[in-house]
Structure formats: C-alpha cells, structure tokens
Amino acid sequence: MSQSFEITTESAKAAPPAIVSLMHVGGMTPADWVTILTLLYLVLQIGLLVPRYIDRFRRYWEGRRDES
Predict the structure, then answer these.
(1) pLDDT tens, 36-60?
(2) Pair 20, 30: CB distance under 8 Å
C-alpha cells in the first residue's frame, strides 16, 4: 500500500475520538452535543413541516368556502 493511503486510513480511524476529545476540552460533553444536535434536528423538521401544513390548511379552507 502507498504511504498516503495508510496516512489517510489511520487519520480516519483516529478522527472520531479526537473530535470527542476536542469537544470535551471545549467545555461540552458528548451528551451536550447530542442534545444540541437533537434540538437542531427538531427545529429543521418543524421548519420544513409548518409551511406544508399551512398550505394544506389553506387549501382545506378554500375548498370548504367553495362548497358554501
């Protein structure tokens, strides 16, 4: 194997523990990061779903108004 491939492989193996260590030194535990990422995920999901539900609600009310 080439030396650059070995360096890349070993770097990829060492990256996750190094990232966790850096986050912990930065003052946040992995549990804190999981909480933040979960909240970010929820905000993104809500941001994607709310416009869809508003559109459906408007179409529903427009359909009801046309029936009257």
Answers:
(1) 889 999 999 999 999 999 999 999 9
(2) yes
